[in-house]
Design brief:
The complex is a heterodimer. Chain A is mainly alpha-helical. Chain A has two domains: 18-34 and 271-303; 46-266, f41 fragment of flagellin, N-terminal domain. Chain A has helices at residues 5-32, 43-98, 103-124, 184-188, 199-212, 215-268, 272-298, 301-309, and strands at 127-128, 131-132, 144-146, 153-155, 164-165, 178-179, 189-192, 195-198. Chain A has a two-stranded antiparallel sheet. In chain A, strands 3-4 form a two-stranded antiparallel ribbon. The longest helix of chain A is centred in the first third of the chain and has 56 residues, at 43-98. Chain B folds into two domains: 3-69 and 396-426, no CATH class; 73-393, no CATH class. Chain B is built from ten helices and twelve strands. In chain B, helix 2 (72-102) runs parallel beside helix 5 and helix 3 (109-126) runs antiparallel to helix 8 (325-337). Chain B is rod-shaped. Chain B starts with a helix and ends in a 5-residue tail after the last helix. The chains are: A mainly alpha, B alpha+beta. The interface between A and B is large, with 60 and 68 residues.
């Protein structure tokens, strides 16, 4: 084969360019820590990384929902346990008042019952994150109010409806959300002896019965308050179950998250050891190519003839 | 009978011949780094002998022609590899710049905006009446709309820059077509390339064809009069662009399938495809989100003009107005759930919104990768073919140096013959007694 000047030039240029390109790519991978700088570097992995990243973002979002829900449930749970002891306290008062021996004693019971009523009312208006947790879906409005002139307790009519946040991944079908709230209706309204009653009204009624000395009403109160106590405790159990489910979801999410982070790292991150070794190899080859190019350029008959005659 | 005078003549011709050969070598050397140059060779032929009683005596040599070492088959191969190489190089460079407008690393761009948009609805579901949560949703919606718009604007800019480039390429190609036709005429006027008179013109014509092959696909055949017929490839089949002395211009409406022009036309088709995909994505986003948000009445989150959704998408700043906490909560959950929900897009793809976005990016990544692979394959092929071409047609310095030494020695030998004959002649002349 005849070797010409243009041939040597073109060949050297192609080799040097290719090596230079590899060096640029490797050093970019090493300095950025990322294997891919554009989809064209590895289209399939790029798309996978994008989808994984979106998944991780959704996990973070759900995690925030879970911690919000956990806070909510804890606030609910503590309100319920306080309410449960208030109701049991009211029942105790009713038992004691049924054998009251004078107006002074009765008056003291009335005061105590009114205090319990006030506390129960405050619990009903418990807020978490600025929202009334027992107000159903209308978390901006306080669920209970007392008419200052008549003293009548009013349950906000909108005190129903659920608050939903996403606490687990949606697998394509909607409706994988569960309510995080227990409505005021569920807790404060209960059935006793075939009729629907309200805890607050019952406590209020107890106070009125003690004041008027209506012993039949007081003994009725002992029964109805007992049912109210049971209802609150039942709701507490629902609450406990929800909290433990949230914990399960949280730990499942952590496993997913760890897996996906690992996968993302596999897809995106540069294998430093491999890349550095490869860079060194390419650099050595590049240096050799440069040397050869310089040497070969001088290797021709003309230069030798000039050398021998001059 | 020739005698000494004939010997002197033969030596003189040798001196002249070596001068021509040296000049040819010198011409070769001076064109050594001219890519389009084909080395020239002075063709020697020995002269007619004449008869003597001792036998037929040779009468030296003469140079009959200076021919070019050109291999038309290799030339054709090089031209087609040049077209393919420049097609994929130009496609790759166009797509690469488009890629950066479409692709985001997932931590910025449309994907990030889409993710944040869904996150904001999750946050809203925690407190549907919260002012800061509502502001978050409004802002995320605006960001998403503007991310889509800016991506689309970049694509549109790239798309509107292409016709200009296509025009330039077409007019460059047309001026080369004219040049080839003119050179055809000039070559035919010298009587074709049989005499070697048109060597330089042929080199120039090859240069023009090589330049043309970078712009459009070129194949050629040489006629008996030395003129070439040049054809290019359109999607409908081969089209003749130079026939003898006539050049036929190509237009911007041509469907050229190779060369830089082919690359640009391909890039334009691809680019329009990506714009359509972005519109499809946006259209699906707008309709799905709006359908959920307006389930209980009210206004939708986004609005966009049909057919050009990506460039016209805007987010309303009042879409939460008139929604009660009770009905916005479930809506927020539904919209957040959308991110994991697969839906069927208008082009038939079934995917989640993010999946569709990733798919667009994977598509463009594949296109760039393919163009790059093709470009580097054709670059290697071209280099290989050019090497073969050079091996045949290129100037080897070593060969020329060896030739020059040879010519030098022949010249010296011929000079020696002249000197010897001159001595003999003197002797012969001195044999004649001087007139007294």
């Amino acid at each position: 084969m005849r070797i010409t000047l243009n041939m040597q030039d073109a060949q050297s240029l192609l080799t040097l360019n290719n090596q230079q390109e590899q060096i640029t790519q490797l050093s970019q991978q090493i300095s950025s820590g990322q294997q891919m700088s554009a989809p064209s570097d590895d289209p399939y992995s790029w798309a996978q990384a994008m989808n994984t990243q979106q998944g991780l973002r959704e996990y973070t979002s759900i995690q925030s929902n879970i911690s919000f829900a956990t806070g909510w449930e804890q606030a609910t749970s503590s309100a319920l346990s306080q309410l449960s002891s208030l109701v049991s306290q009211a029942k105790q008062v009713a038992i004691s008042a049924s054998s009251a021996s004078g107006t002074t004693e009765s008056a003291a019971y009335v005061t105590e019952v009114n205090g319990i009523l006030q506390q129960a009312l405050n619990l009903g208006n418990t807020q978490y994150n600025g929202q009334y947790i027992f107000a159903g879906a209308a978390t901006g409005t306080s669920p209970f109010s007392v008419d200052s002139s008549t003293g009548a307790v009013t349950l906000n009519p909108l005190c129903t409806g659920s608050i939903n946040v996403r606490t687990s991944l949606n697998n394509g079908s909607s409706g994988s959300t569960s309510a995080i709230n227990i409505t005021g209706d569920d807790i404060f309204t209960y059935s006793s002896g075939g009729s629907t009653l309200n805890v607050l009204s019952e406590i209020q009624g107890l106070g009125q019965a003690i004041q008027s000395g209506d012993s039949a009403a007081i003994s009725n109160s002992i029964t109805t308050l007992g049912d109210a106590f049971n209802n609150v405790n039942n709701q507490s159990e629902v609450e406990g179950a929800r909290l433990s489910e949230l914990t399960t979801q949280q730990s499942a999410l952590n496993v997913f998250q760890t897996n996906d982070k690992g996968q993302l790292s596999n897809l995106q991150d540069t294998d430093m050891a491999a890349a550095t070794t490869k860079l060194q190899a390419v650099q050595t080859a590049f240096q050799a190519a440069l040397q050869v190019t310089t040497k070969v350029t001088n290797l021709n008959l003309a230069s030798i003839l000039t050398g021998s005659t001059g | 009978m020739g005698g000494l005078a004939l010997t002197l003549n033969t030596a003189e011709q040798t001196l002249l011949n070596t001068q021509i050969e040296l000049q040819t070598s010198s011409n070769n050397i001076s064109n050594a780094n001219n890519t389009w140059y084909s080395r020239q060779v002075a063709v020697q032929q020995d002269n007619q002998p004449y008869q003597t009683p001792g036998g037929w005596v040779g009468t030296g040599a003469s140079i009959t022609a200076i021919t070019q070492m050109r291999d038309q088959y290799l030339d054709g191969q090089v031209l087609s590899a040049t077209s393919a190489n420049s097609q994929y190089t130009s496609l790759a460079s166009q797509l690469q710049s488009i890629q950066s407008s479409v692709a985001d690393s997932g931590s910025d761009g449309i994907s990030q905006a889409l993710g944040s948009f869904f996150d904001s609805w999750d946050t809203l579901s925690q407190n549907p009446s919260g002012l800061s949560e509502q502001t978050g949703v409004y802002e995320a919606a605006q960001n998403l709309a503007s991310a889509i718009q800016s991506s689309c604007t970049q694509l549109n800019q790239a798309s509107s820059a292409l016709p200009g480039q296509i025009n330039d390429t077409v007019s460059q190609a047309n001026s080369l077509i004219d040049q080839i036709a003119q050179l055809n005429t000039a070559i035919a006027q010298t009587g074709g390339n049989t005499t070697g008179q048109a060597n330089a013109l042929t080199d120039q014509r090859y240069e023009a064809m090589d330049n043309l092959s970078q712009l459009i696909p070129v194949s050629f055949s040489t006629g008996s009069n030395g003129m070439v017929t040049v054809t290019t490839a359109e999607s409908s089949g081969p089209t003749t662009i130079v026939s003898g002395e006539t050049g036929t211009h190509i237009s911007t409406a041509s469907t050229i399938t190779g060369g830089q022009l082919g690359g640009l036309l391909q890039a334009q088709t691809d680019l329009n495809g990506y714009i359509t995909q972005l519109n499809t994505f946006t259209s699906s986003l707008v309709s799905q989100v709006n359908a959920l948000q307006t389930a209980n009445g009210g206004t939708g989150v986004f609005s966009a003009t049909a057919g050009q959704e990506a460039s016209t998408i805007t987010a309303s700043t009042t879409f939460l107005n008139g929604h009660t906490t009770a009905n916005e909560g479930p809506i927020a959950v539904n919209i957040a759930n959308l991110q994991g929900t697969q839906s069927t897009f208008s082009d038939g793809t079934t995917a989640t919104l993010q999946g569709y976005l990733s798919n667009i990016q994977q598509g463009i990544g594949n296109a760039v990768q393919e163009a790059n692979t093709n470009a580097s394959f054709n670059q290697s092929l071209l280099t290989q073919l050019q090497n073969q071409q050079q091996s045949y047609s290129g100037v080897s310095m070593d060969q020329e140096m060896v030739n020059v030494i040879q010519y030098q020695q022949v010249y010296q030998a011929a000079a020696k013959v002249v000197e010897t004959v001159s001595g003999l002649m003197s002797t012969a002349i001195s044999m004649v007694p001087a007139a007294s």
